[in-house]
């Protein structure tokens, strides 16, 4: 299958620090989505970045997209303990209207006090 | 109020038994999806549906059936549960389209003994 993949399995930072999660993909995309999954919950979308966009922001979150290198990053500034979660990138596929997504394996982020 | 709900939240089943997982959405979305999540993996798509009374195979459909009796309800059926189907199962809904966000339920933890 055509996977989006995060580059690291786990990251650990202290509160207040910044952190970046990276993702690479192998085929062309129309858009890339970032999701966050907190313990015991389902994933929730953070940012959608379209193929013609280079950067997208949402509060303390910033996503970038480089279609030439087929990579994306999600940066979180001023991290908080509640940012502790698994972060996924996801790409679409399987037809224009299905809304199907293929998720990467996820990066575990732990933010320590 | 939660827009995608799942029941049960957890279940223990015996090998060879039948298991039905239920999902209900109030988003008025056409598309619904069933994923499984295993430790070390992202979410993998089992089945999806874009209209009542119709279902489509996802990336890992073997051993699973799906049923969409109405726009709001989508069930995942394991006719003969096996040990390898122990996982957390998530249901999601979306409006479809290449930029569609998926809205997830809280998940069902299934343990097959």
The class by helix and strand makeup of chain A works out as mainly beta
Report the strand count of chain A: 11
The value of Rg of chain A in angstroms is 14 Å
Termini gap of chain A? 39 Å
Tell me roughly what share of residues is in helical segments of chain B: under 10%
Which properties best describe this structure?
A: mainly beta, six-stranded mixed beta sheet, 55% strand, globular, B: 113 residues, seven-stranded mixed beta sheet, four-stranded antiparallel beta sheet
Outline the structure in words.
The complex is a heterodimer of chains A (113) and B (113). Chain A contains no helices and 11 strands. By secondary structure, chain A is mainly β. In chain A, the strands form 2 sheets. In chain A, strands 2, 4, 5, 9, 10 and 11 form a 6-stranded mixed sheet that branches. A 5-stranded antiparallel sheet of chain A has the order 1-3-8-7-6, with no helix packed on it. Chain A is globular. Chain B is mainly β. In chain B, the strands form 2 sheets. In chain B, strands 2, 4, 5, 6, 9, 10 and 11 form a 7-stranded mixed sheet that branches. In chain B, strands 1-3-8-7 form a 4-stranded antiparallel sheet, with no helix packed on it. In chain B, a hairpin with a 2-residue loop joins strand 5 and strand 6 (54-57). The model of chain B has no long low-confidence stretch (mean pLDDT 95). Classes of the chains: A mainly beta (113), B mainly beta (113).
Question: What is this structure's SSE topology?
Answer:
The complex is a heterodimer of chains A (113) and B (113).
Chain A: E1 4-6, E2 10-14, E3 19-25, E4 31-37, E5 44-50, E6 55-58, E7 61-66, E8 71-76, E9 85-92, E10 101-103, E11 107-112
Parallel strand pairs in A: 2-11
Antiparallel strand pairs in A: 1-3, 3-8, 4-5, 4-9, 6-7, 7-8, 9-10, 9-11
Chain B: E1 4-7, E2 10-13, E3 19-25, E4 31-37, E5 43-51, E6 54-57, E7 65-67, E8 73-78, E9 87-94, E10 103-104, E11 108-112
Parallel strand pairs in B: 2-11
Antiparallel strand pairs in B: 1-3, 3-8, 4-5, 4-9, 5-6, 7-8, 9-10, 9-11
């Amino acid at each position: 299958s055509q996977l989006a993949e995060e580059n690291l399995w786990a990251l650990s930072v202290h509160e207040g620090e910044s952190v970046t999660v990276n993702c690479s993909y192998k085929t062309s995309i129309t858009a890339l989505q970032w999701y966050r999954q907190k313990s015991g919950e389902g994933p929730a979308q953070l940012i959608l970045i379209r193929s013609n966009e280079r950067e997208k922001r949402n509060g303390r979150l910033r996503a970038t997209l480089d279609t030439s290198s087929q990579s994306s990053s999600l940066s979180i500034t001023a991290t908080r303990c509640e940012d502790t979660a698994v972060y996924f990138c996801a790409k679409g596929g399987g037809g224009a209207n299905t809304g199907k997504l293929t998720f990467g394996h996820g990066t575990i982020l732990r933010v320590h006090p | 109020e939660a827009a995608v709900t799942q029941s049960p939240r957890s279940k223990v089943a015996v090998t060879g038994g039948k298991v039905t997982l239920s999902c209900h959405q109030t988003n008025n979305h056409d598309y619904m999806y069933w994923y499984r999540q295993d430790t070390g993996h992202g979410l993998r798509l089992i089945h999806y549906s874009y209209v009542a009374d119709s279902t489509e195979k996802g990336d890992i459909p073997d051993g699973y059936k799906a049923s969409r009796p109405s726009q709001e309800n989508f069930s995942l059926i394991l006719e003969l549960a096996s040990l390898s189907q122990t996982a957390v199962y998530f249901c999601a809904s979306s409006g479809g389209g290449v930029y569609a966000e998926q809205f997830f339920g809280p998940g069902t933890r299934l343990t097959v003994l």
